[in-house]
Amino acid sequence: MATMAQQPVSLRTDDSGCSDPEIAHLIEEVREGRLEALRDYLSHTRASSDWQDRIHVLERVAPKVSIDALHVACNAEPDAADLLVTRCAYFADLAKTMRGTGTANQVSGARFQNAAACVKAALSDMSRTTQLDDKDPTAYALVLRPLTIFSQTELQQKTFAQAAAIAPDLVPAHFALISASSKRWGGSHEDSLAFARWAMTKASPGGDMAACLFWAHTLVRTHLRDFDNNVQAATQYALSPKVTEELNAALDAWLAPPFVLRRSSIPFLHKASEWYRAVMDIDRLNRVIAFTGEPLNLLPDSGTAPRRTNSSSNGPANGSRGLLGWIFGGK
Fold first, then answer.
1. Rounded to an integer, what distance in angstroms lies between the CA atom of residue 125 and that of residue 136?
2. 308 forms bridges with which residues in the sheet?
3. N or C: which end of the chain has fewer CB within 10 A?
4. What residue ranges do the domains of the chain occupy?
5. Which pTM was predicted?
6. Torsions phi, psi of 102, nearest 5?
7. If DSSP states are collapsed to H, E and C, what string results for 72-115?
8. Residue 128 and residue 139: Cα distance in Å, rounded?
9. pLDDT tens by residue, the chain, 331 residues
């Protein structure tokens, strides 16, 4: 079993071509073990409580950090919440990389084992970070997605509640639970859609919460297409008047004032562009890509094909279930 003394090695691709100059600069710095610029960024976003941008940047920068340099810094400053949240983000991302793609019964025990080591490390840093700064929801939000790997619904809900208690309108936290509650990951279409609609009631004016609704409907559509192998049902679902009306109204509300594009909005807007590209609604697609800068690209629908799922076996592969007690203290 992977241990903290023997860190799993990531094979993640180099994305140094990042189009955001600040993120590109931060990646360059942390890759060389220089953490000062990232720490300055984390300091000013903590002061401004800009949680969504903070999560957006950490999810892109932390995976590129020199982990040796970060370990040294964490050991030198064991009470530095900014360093610990960076390491939490690193291991949360690495867990997803180690798990890889495919349905649960296609994932080897070794991959689950390495993912488990990373989840355990991320949870440890989350715990310490939130003890040091109990008004920052960042670490809670960062661990929500990797918890889906092991279908830890109860722990996810608890962690989500802790994030939402600090920032009730935190889009990344709500968005992470859409997949976790979906049929693809052992939940149901009804559960993920109901959660997305509930999330919309927590939205702040000018925010990106509507992405939850687009993603929930996309998960239904692509499940019908890719898991049920029913293209006709997927098409009928996507074009149904009820779904169309709901999503069009959500888009209108999303892009209305006081909406102002932020860099952290773009990944969420991609969920809308994916939908309108799939249903060939050119007018609304153009409205969205005016913000995202994407090409129109009306190739045949390949929309958001499933990369990971637990649905085929209702959880991690049998050989990995013993890891759950090790990570989460359960049976």
1. 13
2. 102
3. C
4. 1-166, 168-308
5. 0.86
6. 105, 165
7. HHHHHCCCCHHHHHHHHHHHHHHHHHHHCCEEHHHCCHHHHHHH
8. 10
9. 333 333 333 334 444 447 899 999 999 999 999 999 999 999 999 999 999 999 999 999 999 999 999 999 999 999 999 999 999 999 999 998 887 666 655 556 777 788 889 999 999 999 999 999 999 999 999 999 999 887 778 899 999 999 999 999 999 999 999 999 999 888 999 999 999 999 999 999 999 999 999 999 999 999 999 999 999 999 999 999 999 999 999 999 999 999 999 999 999 999 999 999 999 999 999 999 999 999 988 865 655 444 445 543 344 444 344 445 555 554 3
Tell me how far apart the alpha carbons of residues 19 and 30 are, in angstroms, rounded to a whole number.
17
* Alpha carbon 298 to its chain's center: 26
Q: Tell me the two tokens of residue 47.
A: 């002061």
Nearest-angstrom CA–CA distance, 232 and 234: 5
Q: Tokens 């892109």 identify what position?
A: 60
Q: Which CATH entry fits the domain spanning 1-166: 3.40.50, 1.25.40, 1.10.20, 3.30.1490? A: 1.25.40
The 3-state DSSP class for residue 308 equals strand
Cα torsion 231, 233, 234, 239: sign: positive
